[in-house]
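In the design runs reported in the main text, the only information available to the sequence generator was the tokenized backbone. The following block is the verbatim input for one such run; it is reproduced so that readers can re-run the procedure and compare outputs position by position.
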């Protein structure tokens, strides 16, 4: 049948592709970024779903969703901590620049601060609340001041 699609074959191919991804060694950049955010996320990975955004947070398939944990907390109940994966858009200019900064090794503190802002942005994009909004504001302000500074000009 010319129009027939073998769904079982497609599912098998998708499973094989996922297995290859799981077996592939982790990118040095992703491992380093995961280490920088080890207290905040389960891991840092490249996303297959992002097109325009730099990053998003993804929960485990078998774990409690972040939204459900928030609902439990709002109703006064105890909720277990929910750790999620920070997925980065590998083709996004922000990710590429962050990779470049990491590769040079010149300013790891700047890399960490930028990654924390990306993580905070992912939390805000899904409607979440930041643990420390004042710290987020401080980092964002510092970054904005840095980008607005003209060459040869000091504070």
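Verbatim output:
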């Amino acid at each position: 049948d010319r129009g027939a699609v073998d769904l079982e074959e497609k599912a098998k191919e998708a499973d094989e592709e996922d297995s290859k991804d799981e077996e592939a060694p982790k990118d040095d950049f992703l491992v380093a970024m995961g280490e920088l955010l080890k207290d905040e996320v389960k891991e840092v990975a490249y996303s297959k779903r992002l097109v325009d955004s730099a990053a998003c947070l993804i929960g485990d398939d078998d774990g409690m969703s972040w939204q459900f944990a928030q609902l439990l907390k709002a109703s006064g109940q105890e909720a277990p901590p929910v750790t999620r994966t920070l997925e980065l858009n590998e083709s996004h200019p922000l990710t590429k620049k962050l990779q470049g900064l990491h590769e040079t090794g010149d300013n790891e503190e700047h890399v960490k601060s930028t990654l924390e802002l990306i993580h905070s942005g992912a939390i805000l994009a899904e409607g979440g609340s930041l643990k420390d909004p004042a710290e987020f504001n401080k980092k964002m302000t510092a970054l904005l001041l840095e980008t607005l500074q003209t060459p040869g000009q000091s504070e």
